[in-house]
Amino acid sequence: MLTSAVLEDLRYRLPPAPPAGSGLAWLRSRVPRFCDGPEHTRRRAGVERLLESLTVIPSSSVDPTVVLLGALGLPAEISDDVDLVAAAYQPHTPQSADADAALERLVAACGGRGDATAARMCLLVQAHAAVRALVAQRRSGATGPPVPVTRRIAPDGTVVEVDLADAPFGRGPHACPGRALAEAWAAVLR
Questions:
Q1: Residue 1: how many CB atoms within 10 A of its CB?
Q2: Which residues contact 41 (CB under 8 A, 6 or more apart)?
Q3: Residue 120: CB partners within 8 Å, gap ≥ 6?
Q4: Which DSSP category does 59 fall into?
Q5: Does residue 90 belong to any structural domain of this protein?
Q6: Closest Cα to residue 70, out of 124, 112, 29, 31?
Q7: Which structural domain range is residue 52 located in?
Q8: Considering the domain boundaries, does residue 32 fall inside one?
Q9: 72: which DSSP letter?
């Protein structure tokens, strides 16, 4: 496993997501998590604008995903779909027709395919597991990053794992844009 320093080395790239028209493949092809360079910058700016426009009041008693759904003007009832999509978001995790169907329901709830929907779903899906893990850590007294490992493609083309122990919100161009929100949740849980 490599140290987080490689996250600032532009030779270590993100596994790219090919263009796709539906399912989780569509989402991966439209979010900043699975691209680099100018396209990453453009997509990330959309997520950052969305974060800046939200009023999120972290709570120790309400599921973080339900809080985010409310802030985005979406119904709490779709949190199960967020859970299904988040579990299959990374291409190396088990994929399922149920997750693709949940993705399509989320697309519909967010107003259809487009950059704004991709940004909303990016925020929901990436925050879902990470904030839940952070909440669980705080409640148990555990320390460490809520997401302990990420992946990159090394210059030789191999997929490598990167330890996030010293960079809980990542580093470099792909550092977590939701850091302030996660830290606000952590503060509520102290």
A1: 10
A2: 173
A3: 50, 72, 74, 110
A4: -
A5: yes
A6: 124
A7: 17-143+176-188
A8: yes
A9: T
